[in-house]
Specification:
With about 160 residues, the chain is an alpha+beta fold. It has two helices and seven strands, in the order βαββββββα.
Length: about 160
């Protein structure tokens, strides 16, 4: 969906970016929602070299390695079956961290996109951006409603 606005799922490659997102973006966009999809994913190539390695989505269909900034939730190592990353809150101190889960429809979460800055090398089409923002908003609403129903369903069956 981020491609509609010439963007990618957000990559969080430093503590400074993590803090900026937490303090300036997340609370204004997601409110109390503690989880959202980021551009972190396990390599789809089942080779010895890339097996179990995590990557960020880059522009122009590229990827780059997770790197040295690894903020996994409460120090947990991702499950071998997990293949998509998301941001969550740590149970120990409520700080933002990475977690891993599935990539399918049932695991969908709201998502956060990033785009290139507009400048003389990258022209930004305002009309397309507005259309993309409207589409993003509609999809985010659908995902939030489905997540709310899924959480309430789990709580209902848990209380039986």
């Amino acid at each position: 969906m981020c491609e509609m606005s010439d963007g990618i799922l957000v990559s969080i490659t430093s503590v400074e970016k993590l803090e900026f997102l937490r303090n300036k973006v997340v609370k204004n966009i997601f409110g109390e929602n503690s989880e959202f999809t980021i551009g972190l994913h396990r390599s789809p190539l089942a080779t010895t070299k890339n097996n179990n390695k995590w990557f960020w989505f880059g522009y122009n269909n590229t990827v780059f390695p997770l790197g040295d900034f690894k903020k996994w939730e409460d120090g947990k190592v991702p499950s071998p079956s997990a293949s998509c990353g998301f941001a969550t809150r740590e149970t120990s101190d409520n700080a933002m961290a990475f977690a891993a889960g599935g990539c399918d429809y049932d695991d969908a979460r709201p998502y956060l996109c990033q785009t290139k800055a507009c400048d003389s090398n990258h022209f930004c089409d305002l009309e397309s951006g507005v259309k993309a923002a409207t589409a993003h908003s509609k999809l985010q609403t659908q995902i939030k409603q489905r997540s709310f129903r899924r959480i309430n369903k789990k709580m209902y069956f848990k209380n039986l």
